[in-house]
Amino acid sequence: MSERAPQRRNPRIEVLRLVAIAGIAVFHTFQTWFDAATDGSWQASPPALFALGLISLLGAYGNHVFFLISGYFLVPRAAAAARAPGYWADQARRTVRRALPILASVLLYALLALAVSTWLVPMERVSLAKTQWLVGGLQFIWVYLVVVAATPIIGWVWARVRRPRAAVAVLVALIFAVNAYIAFVSPGGEERGLLEWRKLMSAVSYLVAFLTGGALSGRVVPHARALLGTCVAVALVTEGAAGLSGNTALLAALSFKSTSLVSFALAVFSLAVASGRSEGGRNVAQEDEKITRPACLVCELTPSILGFCVAQSLFGSIWHPLVDDLCTAALASGEAALLVAGVAASLVLLVCVLALDRLVRIPLLRLLHLA
Q: How much is the pTM?
């Protein structure tokens, strides 16, 4: 998700967006299976626990990627304009321009969900008399909208802080120290209200990712590829140690909600590599003048990621039981078949929804001059 895209886009970052949403799609498919494996209701084998542990990192990884990318573009633009006359009026217009496509997208899919629930397939939570499906069900969207709305304030403060990147580094350390406490010491109860402090830490973590994206913008990250590889190795070792030893408590703590430091680090160095500013200060992306057809296809699909996020949440009571049944049937052939079936179903669902969104929502937004 992002503001209105410029005409020329960095295909590497667009590929990263697509990787992130694919990870989120797979994560949502296996979330119930991971919960069952870690709470003891399903006795998964150590290799399956290892695989599920890695998959459980993908949700937070993908969410962090989206906030990082948005901060990468929005924060420096706001900071650069912060001392110009008419800053607040200009930023207010830009904020409205960014918010309207998000609100229009939610409205479109909400109306579609109501229509489907009323006339085709009843969905228990979808009703005009209920709000949870629009509030809690779309909490990631609303957090994103709040952060986008706060961008003018962030840019104004950023321009007046002597060392904003150092301040962000300190904030990252503090927030993930608290996150570690939540994950390993005090995770709280099974059900947490929207305003419960541990729940709010998820939103704060995404805000920190947004600020970190701003800190990465225009900066060279030395040895970014090596650092990304190191993070992948750490993920494999830690999840492997927990999964193969059958330590389900550690497995759950390592990827607890959005508090996973491993997911955050993977997202940070993924963006550092994708942005092209990681090879001796040379901006690789600007040197890639020829954009391949696959890259063009990716750039065509990524504007539909917002639509997928909304649709996946609102229509979860339809697609999730179908995918669960498919995975359950596949489990009869072994855990490997379960994993293959779940990943395949996730990606098929992703491609279908992105294509449908590309044909329906995007043209409507263009008709309304919102895209």
A: 0.92
